[in-house]
């Protein structure tokens, strides 16, 4: 599928339906990056449906606690928990999963919303380009390590848990070049300081979101029917902080974590795009909720890209022979990297995933 500027304008000017409501009583919902932006608004929607537990996974404890208190005050829902995880640190991801395993609870919905966007190369303590680690590697690691808990939930409660990874419509406008695909280590090449020139880093965020799409498609093709995994596009979103009042909500504009490093012409264009086209953050968050809870055709949501509260065809590159080759290479490369980070990855793959897509 090709997606141009007029498609963007049409979609952004299309009125969005109200947030989907569902019975999530007794269910556990986990949202990463839940202290601000889309994650916060989605978490607030989930809280309004009275789940069994709502876990906000945040990097910053102080900001996360403020989010917990805001959600409790605005929805009246008290079973909101703050758990700390820093996706720029593999050790933090492992500790988070260790805690979840010890907690012993069920996990019905995992919304992988946390992400960063930067145009400058910066390495994490683990030696990876920061947005590549946060948006792709750690997000994939968390999804894989949480699979046993979700499989157990499906078995014990007769439900179909979901993994929802937040992607972007910008995946239509990027691809992986042949030099990367022909390298012996695709992810390492993408994350190397030599490859991450200022020109390449301008496209880093949509490239990492393209990797998310490859991951969910590869994971879905190897999963049993016990779990639904998909990717969702929230649309071009204005990021606000909500100030709740009894009769209305007042908003003030602020930069999201994704756009905090935008400068110069890029920042000017982004401001113009937001002024002309962007949804409010709450409107965009409805897509995360829909991807997590829509049940009219559950099987049709498996491994799919969701936008505008329906399944949309992914980019021509993803569907092309080159894209299918890239999907396989990235899957194998990602597993190889993550198994070195945590040996549980290979054990989970062997136990829960088929060997052939």
Automatic annotation (TrEMBL):
It comes from the Eukaryota. InterPro entries: NAD(P)-bd_dom_sf, SDR_fam. It holds the Pfam family adh_short. Keywords: Oxidoreductase. GO terms for molecular function: oxidoreductase activity. It comes from Roridomyces roridus. The keyword DNA damage does not apply. Gene3D superfamilies: NAD(P)-binding Rossmann-like Domain. This is NAD(P)-binding protein.
